[in-house]
Amino acid sequence: AERQRLLRIPGLCGQSLLLKWLCHSGSGQEETLSAQTGDSEQPLPLSLQKEGEVFKVLVQVPGADKQSEIGAAKTIRLQFGGVPAKAAPLQATENLVWNGDFSLLDQAGHPVALNLRKEAFNLVEGTGGGRALAFNSTAEKRIQLTTPWIRIPECSKLEYSFRYRTEGGKAHHYNVVAYAYVNFLDRDGKRLPRQSVLSSHVETSDGWQEERMTLTLPPEAVATNFEFNSASSVPGSVILDEIRIVPANQPELLQVSSGEGKIFSLMPEHPGIFRFDLGPANSPVMQGFLPLTPETQYSEERGWGFVRLTRLAARDKKRPDALSRDYLAAAKASFQIRLPKGDYIVWTLSGDSQADGAVPYFFFNQTLRINRKEVFRDDTKPADFFRTYDLQNYRHFWLPGMDYHDTFTAPRFQEKQFTASVDKEFLQVEWENLPLCALIIYPIEKKTELAGELSRLQRRRKIDAQIRLEPGPQEIACKPSFQEKRRGFIIFRRPDSDPVFPSSRPQAEERLEELSTFATPEQVASVHFSLYPLRDLGVVQAKISDLTAAGKTIKANQIDVRIVRYIFRRTGEGAFRVTPFLLDCRDQVPVHAETCWTWYLQVRVPTSAAADTYKGEVSLFSVDQEKVLQKIPFQLQVLPYQLEPLPILQGYYYDPSEPWYATFWRANVLGATLRGDPEIMKIIEENERRELRFMKDLGLNSVSFGDDIRGDMELVDGEARFKEDNRFTFWMDIYASEGMGKMPFYGFQSIGCGTGNVNKIFWLDRNNAALKEQFSPEW
After folding, report:
1. Fewer C-beta neighbours within 10 Å, C or N terminus of the chain?
2. 209 has pLDDT over 70
């Protein structure tokens, strides 16, 4: 009986409707909307939700009566207008985890559908007054909660989320307090590699913590579930709130038919219209498109496919949407399609989101030809690219209202359209080193209809990108004084360890009357303050005066004024929070009401500075009104001694910035050889010298350099030597000339040490088995 009851759990499917008029008549009166399965006239429970200009229809799907029905496909028919249908009210939620909020209890007070023994948990209050589970794990036993398996279509994209908190926990099992996984099953019921989504050492969290991630399931997965583990040795110290699994990308309603059989479609149908989504064989395909993979060779039966692919790069970057997340690039790619004679338009989408990995990919010498005629070429020189485009995001300074997708995602892709004629039998598309995401080929007479489709496609891709902006800290500001109201802002200061977000709010005890610090000669002294605007202030600039003491002066040009720059910092898959990150080389910013900004002053105390208390002031200046808004007194006490040089090596593990990797590894480059390019080598040297000088400015005197120099070594008469023009000597000459100290090692680990073949001397002569043994005479 229990099994039968669980089988009958109703599920929910979502459908996004992008046309507003589908849900309302021209007279403004509400139209009826009903849903039925293909084999029944009984209306299904549904609800309609409006999100901006998008209407989402939630339909409650009938539960399975038999084990064999699990995973079966159901056809849902939506009907707009007509006689109002009477259906039961919608009772299910969008959450695929039944009872994921622990609201349903059996007669014994146990949450139904969850595999937990009564003694393993206690029910406590959750967020919003609901229920949560406190796990009774001990030093002897961890407690695990696993949700039932959920049957899903291949290549589904799901959003997993849960809330948890810890109160006085103690890390024990696996040396963590709590950890969680997302699990997968294939068609044969075998477990696939799972994905870790939580590993926490925090013994007492700052209230409820929410974890949210969007995952594209492995292509062979047909079922998924969520696993949460309490590893604390203190019973009741790990508490879990609502578990949710929901579809991330919901399908759109692209076509409807009238009672008379007339078809209305958002994607025009025509024998000469072809839509291709390019990518690896297992990557998702945009709804309404045909998959075009490296395995799609031309065949007479199909009438389209590849006739040539060399040095292929087929990649799936997981984001931002089904159409642009994946692409096919190649040294040479040739695709042909059989079409009737006539004039056609070829629409292309190209680009690389640079998501899913820390290594960026670069494509040089890009070309596109249609019917052997070159229609596009990008021959930007690599040196010009790395001086301009590669760092272009630096100019995108965050301000309120900045849209992440429009600023950082959309510009990575280019849409282009070209006209072509088919006067024989085939249309041929060839490209080199171009990351091509999608192709649409259509007759020129369909131009007007396709223009509407392409416009909708842009909006659709942005919706599918599922970019979520997490809020910053929610605080309540102290009550402003009369003077603060007149000025229009509050000046405050927090410790360095307590970052100020745009949404931060000053507290009464944080008000700032003056700035003060101390330092020794040759030291850099740092102070900071924050501004909370009560109204729009326009562009505000921070200016520093000279610092003086009894005839002695520290000039203003020895004081750097910097503003704390906010960035979209990733908090999860597709999730970002606007976060303070960099001390930017600028002293002014447009100030909007209720958006906090922070300035830092860095005083480079001269070697000759005599011991004394130096005084000056910081002026907050309105650039628009050309007047001082407020002056903040500032004093610096110079101490009567100097610090000794650091007696030890101090540095960090250092990975060089691009174009080092692209030049010496070349694993992420198509279409160019950068090594030996004098302009590229000049950029690398400039980068490395700047980085080393910055390290020295921070007080560091050493690094451990992350690189692999096996390709720059050779065996000569049985001895390992460096080749001519090797990058080890190139970099070490820069390192030594900048006055840095000894290096612990160069490489991912000491050359010849470690496990596997990484950096081992054995790599130089794989036929010499004796080199496998470390510290042998041969080694």
Report:
1. N
2. yes
User: What is 702-743 written as a DSSP string?
Assistant: EEEE----GGGEEEETTEEEEPTT-HHHHHHHHHHHTT----
Do residues 152 and 224 lie in contact, with contact meaning Cβ atoms separated by under 8 Å? yes
Q: 158: Cβ–Cβ under 8 A, 6 or more apart, which residues?
A: 96, 152, 214, 215, 217, 224, 245, 246, 247, 248
Name the E strands within 186-302.
191-200, 209-216, 223-230, 238-247, 255-257, 263-265, 274-278, 290-292
Measured between alpha carbons, how far is 94 from 47 in angstroms, rounded to an integer? 11
Q: End-to-end distance of the chain based on CA atoms, in angstroms?
A: 69
Distance, in Å, from the CA atom of 19 to the CA atom of 21, rounded to the nearest integer, reads 6
Are the beta carbons of 121 and 135 closer than 8 angstroms?
yes
The DSSP symbol for 68 reads: G
Cα–Cα distances in angstroms (integers) from residue 292 to residues 249, 254, 255, 335, in the given order: 21, 21, 23, 10
Residue linked to tokens 């040479």: 332
Three-state SS sequence of 438-449: EEEEEEHHHHHH
Is beta strand 342-351 parallel, antiparallel or unpaired with respect to 436-443? antiparallel
Q: Which amino acid is at 654?
A: Y
User: What is the rounded distance in angstroms from the CA atom of residue 703 to the CA atom of residue 651?
Assistant: 5
Distance CA 427, CA 445 (A): 17
The alpha helices in 66-157, defined as continuous H runs, are none
179 or 210: which leads in pLDDT: 179
pLDDT recorded at residue 4: 39
pLDDT at 85: 66
Of the candidates 7, 283, 46, the one whose C-alpha atom is nearest the C-alpha of residue 151 is: 7
Instruction: Look up the CATH number of domain 2-80.
Output: 2.60.40
Q: For the whole model, what pTM was predicted?
A: 0.84
Class of domain 118-247: mainly beta
Q: For residues 236-259, b (16+ Cβ closer than 10 Å) or e, as one string?
A: bbbbbbbbbbbbbbbebeeebeee
16 pLDDT band, cuts 50/70/90, is: very low
Query: Measuring CA to CA, how many Å separate 136 from each of 96, 119, 131, 141, 749?
Result: 26, 7, 16, 9, 43
Residue whose token pair is 């000569």: 716
Separate counts of helices (H) and strands (E) for the chain: 8, 46
Distance (Å, rounded) from C-alpha 345 to C-alpha 20? 30
Residue 544 and residue 765: Cα distance in Å, rounded?
Answer: 62
What angle do helix axes 678-697 and 727-737 make, rounded to 10 degrees? Answer: 40
Topology alike, domains 118-247 and 482-638: no
For 498, counting Cβ atoms within 10 Å of its Cβ (0-12 exposed, 13-18 middle, 19+ buried), the class is exposed
Strand, coil or helix: 460? helix
Cα-based distances in Å from 366 to 201, 324, 410, 742: 48, 18, 19, 43
pLDDT of residue 748: 58
Query: What are the domain boundaries of the chain?
Result: 2-80, 118-247, 266-466, 482-638, 651-748
Q: Residue 564 belongs to what H/E stretch?
A: strand 559-572
Which residues are CB-contacts of 118 (< 8 A; sequence separation ≥ 6)? 108, 110
Question: Which CATH superfamily does the domain covering 266-466 fall into?
Answer: Galactose-binding lectin (2.60.120.430)
Distance, CA of 325 to CA of 313 (rounded, Å):
14
Q: For residue range 719-742, what is the model confidence (pLDDT) as tens digits?
A: 888 899 899 999 999 999 999 999
pLDDT for 10 equals: 52
Q: Where are the beta strands (DSSP E) in 433-513?
A: 436-443, 468-470, 489-492
What confidence tens digit (pLDDT) does each residue in 125-169 have? 998 788 999 999 999 999 999 999 988 877 678 889 999 999 999
Annotate 198-216 with three-state secondary structure. EEECCCCCCCCEEEEEEEE
